[in-house]
Write a structure and sequence with these properties.
heterodimer; A: 551 residues; alpha+beta; FAD/NAD(P)-binding domain; Glutaredoxin; eight-stranded mixed beta sheet; seven-stranded mixed beta sheet; 28 strands; 29% helix; globular; B: 77 residues; mainly alpha; 3 helices
Chain lengths: 551, 77
């Protein structure tokens, strides 16, 4: 139908895996979708041996995840694929919402300057997967295609997997198992684990259309447009002249009928309003649910991405939250696997990400209830908000055509050390770090590119630290769980042996409410753990001990 | 000179709670509002709305604000 041709990845007979007694691998990931692949890349970056098993032999078929949020791009930066994703993807910050023909509301995802990455890029899921596969292979991950896991048995200190291949079935063991096999998760079902939530009675038509159009790179959302009355429509620009359009159809629509080109093409012609040529690359109908597993951790088996939680598509909180799961999980798993952290650290993966999943489900459910009102009264309120939005700013804020994926503030994480002093701004313990433009070694750079490599401290100074201070920093760096320090200064300083981050324009000082002497301790996934007005090595050590569940 | 007494900028908040995203308090109110109507017939919902307006109007109390709100609600229809 379309322009994109799915690559076929070679099948390798499992002669090396199919042995008796079964092989024991330190880490197996089930599922080579974007989330499983991100887990594999991160595992390799943490120095872990990883085997990925996937039942297919190619990347995602058709139109699925489209929008990758700023936080995902920051994670992909750490994984090493954000530059290629941003180069191929369509960057955007502005979303416009229309009622009938009039614009009622617009948002800007990144209202202030000083961030490396845009609010969002649009990119077909298959492209992201291809990039992650190439990166995982480059880093030495072992990916096996056409290896379908048909059974998992859980044990106290490992899991046994039964794997079906074109060359027969074999058993293999894993010390740790990461399950990333998607919304239908055969493994979750096989293990009989619950996932509960709400099914929405609505249907949406997705069309990927190839056409030349000069619409700006923005998200356009219509309530009740003249070309599709009483329903909503969403338009996104993707790469290579592919446009993604979602039409709300209602619950009574016949999915088989609506997928037929003779039904789809007139809808598109009515929307485009002219006779511009276009080609359909993909058409499908979807329904959705908002639900999550009660517990993302079951001993040595850890669930990530859609296998663990699902949301409505309004807000792009699916793949984006899956990347955040991986970002939260993999540093914790690596520390536990290396014996540097207590096993309870992995319970905090479940707690942190269950909290985030609840927030994602809450926001996407609110959006869905606004977009598809379930009663006459609900529809009256929705339409009244839209009517007031033309003149009143408060109503514009209530217009909810999707609250786009942003990371959770993990303020309840047990890993945080609560503030003992007063700070302004948003960088509370548990906050996802704000980026900032800085200079390193005389070159322009970004704060987030300097962090996320082990536990790190930011120490804000206005002059080179004393020899005594540097000696304590050195001791932290050589601890059992090393803590590196970045020295942050408004002016260039020479501090041999230490990285100096120059905050010449004061973005960091402002965003982190920092004064001379302020210190921040950071998680490996770029969240704040603790902060102090005066650097104190004992306090840093105590906060690290808390963050690795060794207290 | 603008003599408007009616607040029309975003104003949802709650003492003692911190919202990290500016849309969150308004979305929470809206969710509570729609939930309050759950399971009601259209007539029951209309009556609930009337009671709600009366409660809020008394809470506001200021007749100038209320007159302006009535005018703006009518004008947007």
């Amino acid at each position: 139908m379309g322009a994109y041709v799915n690559p076929i990845y070679p099948y390798k007979a499992p002669t090396d895996l199919k042995v008796t007694p079964p092989l024991r691998k330190p880490l197996i990931v089930i599922g080579a979708g974007p989330v499983g692949l991100a887990a594999a890349v991160d595992a390799r970056l943490q120095g872990l041996d990883v085997l990925v098993l996937d039942d297919d032999k190619t990347v995602s078929v058709g139109s699925r995840a489209v929008c990758y949020a700023k936080r995902s791009l920051e994670i992909l930066d750490r994984l090493g694929v954000a530059d290629s994703a941003c180069a191929l993807g369509v960057s955007w910050n502005i979303g416009r919402t229309f009622l009938e023909e009039d614009e009622v509301y617009q948002f800007n995802l990144v209202p202030d300057a000083g961030h490396k990455r845009p609010g969002m890029i649009n990119l077909q899921q298959y492209h992201i997967e291809e990039m992650l596969i190439a990166r995982a292979l480059e880093l030495g991950a072992d990916i096996r295609w056409q290896h379908k896991v048909t059974a998992v048995t859980r044990h106290n200190d490992h899991a046994t997997l039964t794997v079906e291949t074109p060359d027969g079935t074999f058993d293999i063991e894993a010390d740790w198992l990461v399950v990333a096999d998607g919304a239908r998760s055969p493994i979750r079902r096989h293990l009989g684990l619950d996932i509960e939530g709400r099914v929405f009675q609505d249907r949406f038509l997705i069309a990927d259309v190839i056409m030349k159009a000069d619409y700006p790179a923005e998200r356009w959302f219509w309530f009740d447009p003249p070309f599709h009355p009483n329903q909503s429509v969403l338009l996104h620009k993707q790469s290579n002249n592919v446009w993604r359009i979602d039409f709300q159809l209602g619950w009574d629509a016949d999915p088989e009928e609506e997928k037929k080109p003779e039904k789809v093409i007139p809808r598109l012609q009515a929307m485009l309003g002219d006779d511009r040529p276009f080609e359909l690359e993909w058409v499908s109908i979807y329904t959705f649910q908002c639900r999550r597993m009660t517990d993302f951790r079951h001993g040595r088996v850890l669930f990530v991405g859609d296998a663990a939680h699902q949301v409505s598509p309004f807000g792009a909180r699916g793949a984006n939250s899956g990347f955040q799961d991986v970002d939260d999980l993999m540093w914790k798993l690596a520390l536990v696997m290396k014996g540097q952290a207590g096993d309870r650290l992995l319970d905090t993966y479940a707690h942190d990400r269950q909290f985030a999943a609840d927030e994602n489900i809450m926001n996407s459910t609110r959006s869905t209830d606004f977009i598809t009102p379930k009663s006459r009264t609900s529809k009256t309120f929705r339409n009244s908000v839209l009517a007031l939005a033309k003149h009143h700013p408060f109503a514009r804020k209530l217009v909810n055509s999707g609250r786009l994926s942003v990371p959770s503030f993990l303020t309840h994480s047990v890993l945080n050390t609560p503030d003992a002093e007063v700070f302004a701004g948003q960088m509370v313990p548990g906050a996802p770090m704000d980026d900032a433009p800085v200079q390193v070694n005389g070159q322009d750079a970004w704060l987030l590119d300097q962090v996320g490599k082990g536990f790190q401290c930011l120490l804000f100074v206005d002059a080179a630290p004393s020899a005594d201070t540097l000696a304590t920093l050195q001791a932290l760096k050589q601890g059992a769980v090393p803590v590196d320090t970045l020295i942050v200064s408004p002016l260039a300083l020479s501090v041999p042996g230490w990285m100096v981050v120059v905050d010449a324009q004061g973005w960091m000082a402002k965003r982190y409410d920092a004064q001379t002497g302020t210190a921040y301790l950071l998680r490996l996934d770029q969240h704040v753990l603790a902060r102090w007005r005066q650097f104190n090595p004992a306090a840093v050590q105590a906060a690290v001990a808390r963050a690795i569940c060794k207290v | 000179m603008n003599t408007s007494a009616l607040k029309t900028d975003p104003h949802f908040h709650e003492a003692g709670r911190r919202f990290f995203r500016d849309f969150s308090p308004g979305d929470e109110f809206y969710e509570n509002l729609i939930e309050a109507h759950n399971g009601l017939s259209d007539e029951q919902s209309e009556a609930l709305n009337a009671r709600l307006i009366l409660l809020l109007a008394n809470h506001i109390g200021d007749l100038k604000v209320l007159r302006e709100a009535l005018q703006q609600a009518r004008a947007a229809g």
